[in-house]
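Support reply, case 0932

Customer input (verbatim):
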Amino acid sequence: MNKNSIELLGVDGGGTKTRAVLVKADGTILGEGLAGASNYHVVGAEGAEKALTDAVLAAFKDAKMDEVQAVNIEKAVFALAGIDTVNDKSEVEGIVQRVIKALSIKIGNLLVENDCLSALLGAIHNKAGVLLIAGTGSIVFAHDGNNRIVRSGGWGHRIGDEGSGYWIGKQAIQSVLKMVDGRGEDTLLSKLILEKFNFTKVEELYNWTYSDCYSVDDVGALAAVVDEAFQLGDTVSKRILDAAVDELLLLIETAIEKADIRQNEFDMIIQGGVFHNNRYIKNQVSQRIRQSTTKVKIRTSTEEPIRNIIKRGLQLI
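Our regenerated output:
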């Protein structure tokens, strides 16, 4: 590699943040850049373009490479959240092409694909495997080892993302409102959520949910509050966590069946903040999957998804 050539540009873009890295052929990161959300369903096309541009430029700056236009990039992987339909694929590819044109970057081999899919293929190569990501959102991809890929979930916070941090947080808020109405039992979540947001009464919580300050990230962060209440013996919180476990298991079981790999030996990678921050959910999901799928090897990944996206990019011809 000469000074005007980069082996790989890897981009991991989601509903919270975007990370771009410039990488040598041996996997060494030369520069890294961070920016805001680039899921166009969350921030719109212009917001996505800005985040992608900012992240890539920051990566070049970190690599001490100021002349972006003079650099040839051999391979690039844009692994982005929000690619869930054929229309999404077309929209996001257009966004990426506009970013590349605006930066005057020359790319030899370009791949634009769903972030979870990219991370799975980077992690397992051509073997059978499953990746479950449960962070602010939730999604599963499975690969049968013979080029067949299936997915389950990942339909976004408005109508999907069951078992995710956002879903758990939303259930928590609903439980507080039911308690106030008298439709639900008392729960520690009322006190803890109000403290989390520095509110003094539930009416403020309600007003916040319909204000411009409301955010998916803030609701997703309430998953940690639910876990705290659960640790203190709150029965409502336990029911929420048990329901989240059921939803995540349904995502996994559906993907395993669609990929037809239940009788195979395969790795299942579980990743995301829900598993890192909630031991109960992690243990319940792992135990119950092992009961139904005896040949599975469960791996809890603590690596940032960008590491598997880098592997995915370096595999490209």
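We compared this against your earlier run and they match. Two observations from our side: The mean pLDDT is 89. The chain has two domains: 5-120, 126-301. Please reopen the case if you see a mismatch on your end.
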